[in-house]
Amino acid sequence: MKLSIIVPVYNMASDNKLQFCLDSLLSQNLEDYEIIAVDDCSTDSSLEVLKDYEAKNQGKFRAIHSDVNKHQGGAKNIGIKAANGDWIGFIDADDWIDPDMYRLMLWKAEETGADMVGCDLNLVNSHTYTVGEVIEPNGSQSQCGELDHEKKKSLILDGGRLVVKIYKRENILKNQLFFPENIFYEDNAMSNSYLLTARHYEHIDKPWYYYYQHSSSTVHSFSERMCLDRMEAGRIMISEAKRLGFFEEFKSELEYEFTQLFYVNTLFTYMPCVRPCRLSFVKTLTKEMKETFPDFQNNSYYAERTGVEEKKLVAMACSNALKFYCYYKMLWGYRNLRKKISGKK
C-alpha cells in the first residue's frame, strides 16, 4: 500500500467539521491508500460518525477507538502503529485537503527519489475550496534536494507544519518518531525530528491544505495548562535533538527555536490571555530559560528575527520579573482602553 492517512479525532462532529474532512480524504484522486481515523475518547458523536464511514468504505477506511484520552500525539501514535502504507500523512480532523494533494505529492516523490514531500497551507474560515490566505513559510525551493547542512538549518528555522508533508513510514519507525502523549503542541516537539531524519526533501508550491480557523481551534484558546504543555514541547524538542544526534551541529538554530517556542511565545501568550496571571509563573519560566540557554539573547537569529518590542520586554523580564510583570500589565491595560475608546467613536 502506498499511503496511510492518519486522522486524530476528538469531539469534531459538530458543524459538519469531521464529515467535511473525511469526505475530502475519500475524494482523493488516488487508488492505493487507507484512512486511519483514531477517536481519542470523544464525548460527542464523533466515534459514531467514524463507524458509519468505516461501514460504508470497507477496505479504505478504518476507525480505531482509544480507550484512554491521550491527546493528538497519542492518537497519532496509534495510527502510526496501525498503518500499512509506505508513506504516512497526517491531517487534523477539522481541516481538509485538495483532491490532488496526495497523488501529486507521491508522484513528486517517485520522480525525484525524495523521502519527504511538502506543499503549502492556506487559512480559511468556512468550508470552501477557495484559496484563502496562504501561510508562509511551509517550505521553499531552496530547501529541496538532498538535505545538506545548510538545507537542514533552513528546515529548522522555516520548515513549516508537519500536516502539509508526507513521510516514509520506514524512517518514522527506524528513528522511533513517536509523538509525546497527553500534551498539546506535540507537532512542535517532534517537527525537527521528522525534518532532519529525512534524506531528500521536495516542496510543491501549491496551497493544497486547508487550515480551518474557528472558535474551538486550539490556536484560539489558551490556559496555563497549554502554556505548560508548550514549555514541555520545547524540552522534548531539545531532548529529541540530543537523542538523534543533531543537537551540537545545529545548536544555534535549536537555541533560537527553543527560545521562541518555550519562552517568547509562552510569555506573550500567558500574560494577556491567562487568568489569573501569576508573577510566579513568569519567574519560573524565565529562570528555566536562562538555565537552559544562558546567552539566548545574543543568538544571531534571535537578534534578527525577534521584534524590537519583544526583545525589550524579554530583556526586562530577564533582568527584573516584577518590573516586567507590572509594566506589561499597565501597557496591556492602556492598549485595551484605547481600543475600547476608538471602538466607540
Report the span from N to C terminus. 62 Å
Q: What is the C-level CATH assignment of the largest domain?
A: Alpha Beta
Helix and strand element order: EHEHEHEEHEEEEHEHHEEHHHHHH
What low-confidence regions span 5 or more consecutive residues with pLDDT below 50?
A: none
CATH topology (fold) name of the largest domain: Spore Coat Polysaccharide Biosynthesis Protein SpsA, Chain A
CATH superfamily of the largest domain: Spore Coat Polysaccharide Biosynthesis Protein SpsA, Chain A
Percentage of residues assigned to helices: 40-55%
- For the biggest β-sheet, the strand order reads 3-2-1-4-10-6-11-9
Taken as a percent bin, the fraction of beta residues is 5-15%
Mean pLDDT: 94
How many extended strands? Answer: 12
Second-tier CATH architecture of the largest domain:
Alpha-Beta Complex
Structural class of the secondary structure composition?
A: alpha/beta
User: What about the largest sheet?
Assistant: 8 strands, mixed
Tally of DSSP helical segments: 13
Radius of gyration: 21 Å
Domain count, please report it: 2
Outline type:
globular
